[in-house]
């Protein structure tokens, strides 16, 4: 089990612990706002399980049916997480609306509020870890899990503010009203997560700064070639796929052109070991002559 899988498995354990604490907080207080927090934690556990399965599948080596690997499984997991977040938001809105129509008494016991604070603190620390490790490991599933928990931390902060307002003013409808705001925040988070993850499934290109760095590396390491053109990139999990055409003299030996390709590929992978490079060599009399000038 690699580091990404261990972190994803840890998310399941943390999710179950936080769910238990937030459920206890809701049962002790009867607060709809705390119910909304607990409902989102149910989704957190389901999303953590999906992330673990996706990271595990993504780590399996290429096979006959998937020669490019299984890295896109992480994007599928992120889309599922986004959809689950949206479902949670709808469930929270439904419960909050019912509480607005039929107000209920809220008992803000120190034990109940304390359980929610403890759960939020655990989520905050784990969220920071997921962002840090997810970006370091270039794992869309872990980053998506971190974004999900961040929305939960923000929601929890809103819930605690709402409970403070209810305690200070005695206005009961503030509890479900804040729950509605929490649901809208959760809904926005889920839609954003789905949108960003679909980009990965649609073979979205590498960022502009990454593409420029790739082009500079090609230009510095293609001595003996004439130019390169049609540079294309796409992401698949932690991998970045790069392909381009390399123009050489028509009378250059195949072995010499191959040496140039090896040198460029080594230089690109020296900057990013998770880069998969494919180079198409073409003679100058067949080339477009509209690309990267070799330095």
Structure, briefly:
Keywords: Membrane, Transmembrane, Transmembrane helix, Transport. By secondary structure, the protein is α+β, with helices and mostly antiparallel strands.
Describe what you observe in this structure:
- The structure is a single chain.
- This protein is about 70% helix and about 10% strand.
- With about 300 residues, the protein is of the alpha+beta class.
- It folds into 2 domains: about 5-200, Cation efflux protein transmembrane domain (Alpha-lytic protease prodomain-like, Up-down Bundle), CATH 1.20.1510.10; about 210-295, Alpha-Beta Plaits.
- The protein has a 4-stranded mixed sheet, covered by helices on one side.
- The chain is elongated and about 85 Å long.
- The mean pLDDT is about 80.
- It comes from Chelatococcus sambhunathii.
- It is a multi-pass membrane protein.
- InterPro entries: Cation_efflux, Cation_efflux_CTD, Cation_efflux_CTD_sf, Cation_efflux_TM, Cation_efflux_TMD_sf, CDF_Transporter.
- This is Cation transporter.
Number of strands: 4
Oligomer status = single chain
What is the assigned CATH homologous superfamily of the largest domain?
Cation efflux protein transmembrane domain
Report the CATH C-level class of the largest domain.
Answer: Mainly Alpha
* Average pLDDT rating: 81
Main location: membrane
Transmembrane segments: 7-28, 34-55, 75-93, 113-131, 152-170
Family: Belongs to the cation diffusion facilitator (CDF) transporter (TC 2.A.4) family.
Subcellular location: Membrane
